[in-house]
Amino acid sequence: MKLVLIGAITGLVLSISWIIWGFGAALAILLTTAIFALIGLALDLSGFSFKKIVNKLSAKLAE
């Protein structure tokens, strides 16, 4: 059910942006979203997490 909701919201945002800004801008928004999603997926598969990064940073700042 969550994927259906995400797909519906994505389609709505894409169609509204297409109407407001035109096809080129809507395509740029879609490509940018896809690129950042792939970067996030790669970081997630590599084991990066914000919690680990914040813990390392705060440990270094505390020293």
UniProtKB/TrEMBL annotation:
The chain crosses the membrane at residues 25-43. Keywords: Membrane, Transmembrane, Transmembrane helix. This is DUF2273 domain-containing protein. It comes from Limosilactobacillus fastidiosus.
